[in-house]
Amino acid sequence: xxxxxxxxxxxxxxxxxxxxxxxxxxxxxxxxxxxxxxxxxxxxxxxxxxxxxxxxxxxxxxxxxxxxxxxxxxxxxxxxxxxxxxxxxxxxxxxxxxxxxxxxxxxxxxxxxxxxxxxxxxxxxxxxxxxxxxxxxxxxxxxxxxxxxxxxxxxxxxxxxxxxxxxxxxxxxxxxxxxxxxxxxxxxxxxxxxxxxxxxxxxxxxxxxxxxxxxxxxxxxxxxxxxxxxxxxxxxxxxxxxxxxxxxxxxxxxxxxxxxxxxxxxxxxxxxxxxxxxxxxxxxxxxxxxxxxxxxxxxxxxxxxxxxxxxxxxxxxxxxxxxxxxxxxxxxxxxxxxxx
Length: 340
Known about the structure:
about 30% strand
């Protein structure tokens, strides 16, 4: 079978790319390795700037006009007249986006394990059967362990680790904790959802290994009277190693391109923007994306700050304390740390 475009990965980036292509009359196939759309290690927090136009209001679980930020020396609350951060359920978001992509005519196959990529063909297994399809364009939206990226010969040397727990409790306040001595430029979080709370942490590797990060999360949340001992964590590698997004007739979007923020691990918004850039470039080869250029500039700045902080403990301490101080006195907005 022949498609104009094959998209590998059914996360926000892959589904968004597929929907745009299908909406414009492009014959597109989306291959998702998981059987359930939307399943991913994710805290579900989205910064309000930028994503407000891309996530339907009915998918927003909680809105936060204020949030608490703690560092080694400070405990502050910052607020705004408009929501600073919102939380979404990744599975609900995934299902919604999958329905939209299918409604516009995209073919979507779940449980599809890609095992071979040739010049213009891709082979995958689904329900113990092998399938091969041909394409004009290939989009890798298959996350930090991207098969498409690997096939392009691009390594992932710079990455972070994300660990999250879903706790069946109702919690009111959103908390960001920056402990530079323990986790460098990383942080731990408490993100309330409608019927649960996501708690976890993000840290740059190899500054902190997964076991050490998890140990710190459990200790920190115990102090917050949240017990994780009977719960099972989920962990994921988060690629921050950007080496390009356009390679002839192949494109990389989101984590596959290494577009997650090295400083915060934020990845949903870069996935949306890079998906739009890839889809629009396939439709019109002369297309240029100002939004993606802005993402790339923020990504570069975040990478520099993260590397500096994780190589020098004093830099990590100063970054967290000065940032909190500037936020406290409203000398910088919270959006300064967003990828939007």
